[in-house]
Write a structure and sequence with these properties.
With 195 residues, this protein is an alpha+beta fold. It is built from 4 helices and 10 strands; from the N terminus they run βββαβαβββββαβα.
Length: 195
């Protein structure tokens, strides 16, 4: 089974995360940030990843460190679980409607960490959640998963729908990319021979 277990402790956060790429979408999420919890449950279910996250962070300051660091650790977990990436499809993409919002995500486990983020969230906050932190989460993820990740908003006027559509789309995109292609199960999906 393709699994990962990551522990990361800094002066700002203490995170324990487990990931099973070949799961059923079960999750147990406690990041200290209710909105991020909700997004990760959706991400897990739509990607069919089994995901457990516990984060104790300095939320008395704000949610920034917790959100960013959970993105970092989730990216590290994908990198660990994929190993040398032998047999994976490598690429994934999804255009996902969430009511009036339409979100596009595309990903390549290229070994080159890049985030291209073209999203305009109309409000500063969803409840108590600072919408600027969404980009920080995905930046931390892309850098540590060593992937190229494009996130583009094609339509949307409701902040919650835009962000929710993004997390659902990303989960489904990752599911495609990490799937083992039976025809190439013993091959690295690159002419370079390494990713």
């Amino acid at each position: 089974m393709r699994t990962a277990q990551i522990s990361r402790k800094t002066a700002e956060t203490d995170i324990q995360l487990t990931l099973n790429l070949d799961g059923t979408g079960e999750s147990a999420i406690d990041t200290g940030c209710g909105f991020l919890n909700h997004m990760l449950v959706l991400f897990s279910r739509h990607g069919r990843f089994d995901l457990s996250v516990v984060c104790k962070g300095d939320t008395d300051v704000d949610d920034h460190h917790s959100v960013e660091d959970v993105g970092i650790v989730l990216g590290q977990a994908f990198a660990q679980a994929l190993g040398d990436k032998r047999g994976i499809v490598r690429y994934g993409s999804m255009m996902l409607p969430m009511d009036e919002a339409l979100m596009l995500t595309a990903l390549d486990f290229s070994g080159r960490s890049t985030l291209c983020y073209d999203v305009s969230i109309p409000t500063e906050k969803v409840g108590a959640f600072d919408c600027q932190l969404v980009e920080e989460f995905w930046l931390g993820f892309a850098r540590n998963a060593n992937c190229t990740l494009h996130i583009r908003q094609l339509a949307g006027s409701n902040s919650h729908h835009i962000i929710e559509g993004m997390f659902k789309s990303a989960g489904r995109t990752l599911r495609q990319a990490v799937t083992i292609d039976p025809a190439f199960a013993d091959e690295i999906p690159s002419t370079k021979g390494v990713l």
